[in-house]
Amino acid sequence: MTTLTVVAAWAFLVVLVTAQDPMHRKFEYKHSFRAPNLAQRDGSIPFWMITGDAIASGEQLRLAPSMRSRKGIAWNKRAMTESEHFEIDMSFKVTGQGRIGADGLALWYTAQQGTLGPVFGSNDYWTGMGLMFDSFDNDGQKNNPFVALMINDGTRSYDHQTDGSQQMLSGCQRDFRNKPFPVRVKVSYYKNVLTVLMHDGMTAQPRYELCIRAENIFLPRNGYFGISAATGGLADDHDVTDFSVYSLFAEQRQQAAQQQMPQEEKQKYDQEFEKQMQDFESQRQKFKEAHPDKAKDDEEEDFAKYFEDATARELRLIYESQTAIHQVMQQMETKLREISQQQNTHTSMLQQGGGHVPQQGGAPPAQGALMQHEKNEMLQSLRDLTASIRDMKNYVNEIFTRSYNIEQKLNQGGAGGAVQQDPSVKAYLESIQNDLRQLKSQQQVGGNKSVCDNIPCLSSTLFMVICALQSAVILAFVYFRSKSDKAKFY
Ligand SMILES: [Ca+2]
Ligand SMILES: [Ca+2]
């Protein structure tokens, strides 16, 4: 019921103030930060300094973590020079496991930038405003969490033992810990009236209630905004998710600001602009007459360059990417053509004959994966090899048969002629026969397999050498034999 009354009173007040003097707000980004993208990658916040245990991330500025005896502060590096009247809209979360937490969080507007100290993480004896969100009940009045406003002129020390109850200007008891949504607080300082509105953190959309209203407040001009938090024996996480500062202006002043440029001066500037435009146009016309082609080109180019709207840009991007794709496709086509040409070359080489492929019995050298045409090439060469081996085999057989016949004839001649055959010549002949048999069997094996699996295999050169040797021996033997026959007949 009391809450309702307060809200109604505040609404009435706002209406009253608004009716008297319409107010304008302007967001001041150099004094503000907001989640997401609250901090930069290096953990800094533009225009803000962060020290102590405070850590900034994209989502929040954690002034003090839920660990014992921590303190952290963040202070705006830029003085509030835009306006002497301002509004701060801050969202924060104080969360902890315990039913009771400590110590609390404070919002500052001071003549100098703050430093680490004993008052909720910040220095004592400050000059300006301190709005404390005091979690822990030091004086045992069972009135915490409490929101307290204390104005200091730099001479007074904050008394923790009494929760500053004797020093505070005004305050209200509000439970701001462990709420489902960030608690929002709106502090406005306008024409020496300071008001603090608070949201309970139970809804996503803020519903503000009046906490403090104080008149005849004189805050330092060009002061600095700051926030701080500290933990003690008990510890909460103290996070700020939004700190937005607005400068406040009366409507009259804003209008005055807009109309600062005198009418005469404005007209003068307009005339000057008009004159320059005319000059430029006449120059352009002259140039166009002198160089009709160039002028046309320039005009078109200029339009393309300077008047590219969103659609044109999109079209250009699409065209560029399509051109890129086209180029890639052309490259691929060229590659394919090359491959096709290579294939044709290989095929023609194959058709021209396996005569060029290695005739040695060894397997062709393995070079990684084999292409189809290489396989065909190999098969063809193997076929050729098989054919030549078959020829060799026939040749060897023929030689064998002939030498056998010669031997038979010799044996018959020896028996008829009653001449003692030379035993050394006979042994030599037998060894040749053995060699030939061996060779024959080897050739048969080779012929069946078609391929010489194991090297050494009979090479054509070796074969020819053996044939030549045998022929020479046979000729020598025949010659020797005919000589002895002759001798006998005489
Ligand atoms: Ca306290
Ligand atoms: Ca207390």
From TrEMBL:
Keyword field: Disulfide bond, Lectin, Membrane, Signal, Transmembrane, Transmembrane helix
Membrane topology category: Single-pass type I membrane protein
Location in or out of the cell: Endoplasmic reticulum-Golgi intermediate compartment membrane
Keyword Membrane: yes
Keyword Transmembrane in annotation: yes
Signal sequence residues: 1-19
Segments crossing the lipid bilayer: 458-480
A GO molecular function held by the record: D-mannose binding
GO BP annotations listed: endoplasmic reticulum to Golgi vesicle-mediated transport
Highest taxon listed in the record's lineage: Eukaryota
Record region (Disordered): 279-299
PANTHER family from the UniProt entry: LECTIN, MANNOSE BINDING 1 LIKE, VESICULAR MANNOSE-BINDING LECTIN
Protein name: L-type lectin-like domain-containing protein
Record organism: Steinernema carpocapsae (Entomopathogenic nematode)
